[in-house]
Each structure stands twice: as structure tokens, then as C-alpha cells.
Write a structure and sequence with these properties.
Helices cover about 40% and strands about 25% of the residues. By secondary structure, it is of the alpha/beta class. A hairpin with a 5-residue loop joins strand 3 and strand 4. Helix 1 runs antiparallel to helix 2. The protein is elongated, with a radius of gyration of 22 Å.
Length: about 160
């Protein structure tokens, strides 16, 4: 039995958009490129044909991968949660690093959505695991590769 993997509503929407683009734009473009390459004759030495077939293989693999992710996804719409200041999957957390006084904002998302540059961390990351179930005002100690950090939860938003 396959376990459901949590994903935010916006993350699921981005996957659906990519799937739609692959099916409606990329797939027909690749099919056209293969047809044009076939019209050039000998397929053994036809670089355009081989390149188009490689693109087709990649696109079909990505379509299959996205379909699998969406079929195993448990979509969490954080705007409908009644968490009352508690850190939960999908929420946005504003933190202050007590050592550096730096303000940090993270959104806790699914593994496929994580992007530290845009402030999205995976729910399985050390920081997210330490934050989940904590409340506004709590101070959390987290062991990260750079050492231990003490983070105060300033605000929890469900957007």
C-alpha cells in the first residue's frame, strides 16, 4: 500500500499546471519534431530524430512522474485549518534567531516543493521537525549542520 504524501494546495496546482503544459504544448511539439525528422530520411544517422526521441522520452517520463505524485498526494489547504497559532504543515512561520537577531521566514511544505532560496522548507527537515506542533512565542533549539540554533517563533500564518 502506498502512503499519501502531503503537499500544499499551491504545490499541487503547480504540478497540475506543469502536467497540462507537458500534455498540451510539449507533447504535440515533440510529435511534430519527430514527424519532420522522419521526413528527412535515414533514421540511423538523423540527429534531429534522435534528439526529438530523447525529448519525448524525458517528457513522457516526467508526465508519468507527476501523475504518480498527484495520485499519492494528500493536498493540505492551510487556509482551512483551525490551528490557533500552532505550527503545522503548510503554514508560514516567522522566526528570530536568538544568537544573530536575524528574522527568518519559512513555509513548511512537502519534499517536492522545498526551495530554501524562496523560504520553503520540507516538513522532514530538521528545522521543520523541531517547529511542528510548537506555538507562537516558543523558543526551539535545532541542531543543524552549522551547529545548534535557538529560534523564537514570532508569528504563525495560515496563508
Amino acid at each position: 500500500m502506498t502512503t499519501k504524501v502531503p503537499i500544499t494546495a499551491s504545490g499541487a496546482e503547480k504540478l497540475r499546471e506543469e502536467l497540462n503544459r507537458l500534455k498540451t504544448v510539449e507533447r504535440p511539439r515533440i510529435i511534430q519534431a519527430i514527424a519532420e525528422a522522419r521526413a528527412h530520411g535515414d533514421l540511423k544517422e538523423n540527429a534531429e530524430y534522435h534528439a526529438a526521441r530523447e525529448q519525448q522520452s524525458f517528457a513522457e517520463g516526467r508526465i508519468k512522474e507527476i501523475n504518480g505524485k498527484l495520485s499519492n498526494a494528500h493536498v493540505v489547504d492551510v487556509t482551512t485549518l483551525e490551528a490557533s497559532g500552532k505550527v503545522v504543515f503548510g503554514c508560514t512561520v516567522e522566526l528570530i534567531d536568538e544568537d544573530t537577531e536575524e528574522t527568518i521566514v519559512y513555509q513548511i511544505v512537502g519534499e517536492d516543493e522545498a526551495d530554501i532560496k524562496s523560504g520553503k522548507i520540507s516538513f522532514s527537515s530538521p528545522i521543520a521537525r523541531a517547529l511542528i506542533t510548537k506555538l507562537e512565542g516558543d523558543v526551539v533549539s535545532v541542531v543543524v549542520p552549522g551547529g545548534e540554533r535557538n529560534l523564537e517563533i514570532v508569528e504563525v500564518r495560515y496563508i
